[in-house]
Design goal:
This is Sulfotransferase domain-containing protein. Keywords: Transferase. It comes from Sphingomonas horti. Belongs to the sulfotransferase 1 family. The protein has 301 residues and is α/β, with parallel strands linked by helices. The chain has one domain: 3-Layer(aba) Sandwich (Rossmann fold). Helix content is 42%, strand content 6%. It contains 14 helices and four strands. It has a four-stranded parallel beta sheet with strand order 2-1-3-4, with helices on both faces. α4 packs across α6 and α13 crosses α14. The chain is globular and about 50 Å long.
Length: 301
């Protein structure tokens, strides 16, 4: 006897200085939509670039932020964003930072969720927030409708920032552990693929081909060299204005600051042994041993 698939259901709304999950209640899915999920600073932009290249066959000059909006980012004009997505005729690929239980889930869409070791996330997040311009903070905090406290610029001391982020579970953003846990719990679904940043770094060609297969995208043989080149960090850094939201204008140093280093392990010479033990302890407590190990090392989820 065949068992019916139990699909995730939205059980709450999530609203803060960055996000407003209610936008998904008005979004009209198509059968071939691709949803790119992450906590934040986990490889979102890279995954968007990869999927754009698969959809458009290695084309140059794709305006990825324009085509693939962060749907639940509250500062974006909702009606305009939804209308823009409705007008798209290519296969749509949309970004979210929501946990699964705050997201409308479509059994017909494909979901790609990318993760990164939390210490690498925190290092990238510190760069993102520390170098945000005054305009960045004005938009985040002063756009009408903010729920909760304002977002503040972090201290220069990155270890202090990390420890605060760790002990306050993702502060000043949203819960890190909850986000990872909700997606890990649906990894068995046929339309969900979990990716790890470290695996993409180690074998980009293999992982991109695996992603194409999951998304049912047939790629011409002669397009692969272009796709792989356009998904490299060097290419994205040179063309950062096509990857960073608003061309990178909201960060000191521009788009090159948004597409920063793309490296892991920068925390190794900063965090103490006690810091790392605390991170691992919380990871196991919050996620369980299997998920915690995968989050740290990658490999098969």
């Amino acid at each position: 006897m065949l068992q019916r698939t139990s699909w995730p259901q939205k059980t709450r709304e999530l609203h803060n200085h960055h996000m407003d999950s209610t936008v998904w209640n008005a979004f009209r899915f198509r059968a071939d939509d691709i949803i790119i999920g992450t906590y934040a600073k986990s490889g979102t932009t890279w995954t968007q670039q990869i999927i754009s290249q698969l959809i458009f066959g290695g084309a140059e000059g794709i305006d990825v932020p324009g085509l693939s909006p962060w749907l639940d980012m509250r500062i974006m004009p909702r009606a305009e964003m939804l209308a823009g997505l409705e007008a798209q005729t290519h296969r749509r690929f949309i970004k979210t930072h929501l946990p699964v239980d705050a997201l409308v889930f479509s059994p017909g869409a494909k979901y790609v969720y990318i993760v990164r070791d939390g210490r690498d996330v925190a290092w990238s997040l510190h760069n993102h927030l520390y170098y945000g311009t005054d305009e960045f903070y004005r938009l985040i905090n002063d756009t009408p409708g903010r729920v909760g406290p304002a977002l503040e610029r972090p201290p220069a001391d990155i270890r202090r920032f990390f420890l605060d982020w760790l002990e306050r579970d993702g502060y000043p953003l949203w819960s890190f552990w909850e986000n990872i846990r909700t997606w890990w719990n649906i990894r068995h679904l046929p339309n969900v693929m979990l990716l790890h940043f470290a695996d993409l770094k180690a074998d980009p060609a293999g992982k991109i081909r695996e992603l194409a297969e999951f998304l049912d995208i047939a790629v011409a043989d002669d397009a692969w060299p272009r796709i792989l080149e356009h998904c490299s960090f060097d290419y994205m850094k040179r063309n950062a204005d096509k990857s960073a939201p608003l061309g990178g204008m909201l960060w000191e140093g521009g788009a090159g600051r948004f597409i920063n280093k793309g490296t892991n392990g920068r925390w190794r010479d900063v965090l103490t042994d006690a810091d790392n033990r605390r991170y691992r302890q919380l990871s196991i407590e919050q996620l369980g041993a299997d998920c915690a190990t995968w989050l740290e090392r990658g490999g098969r989820a």
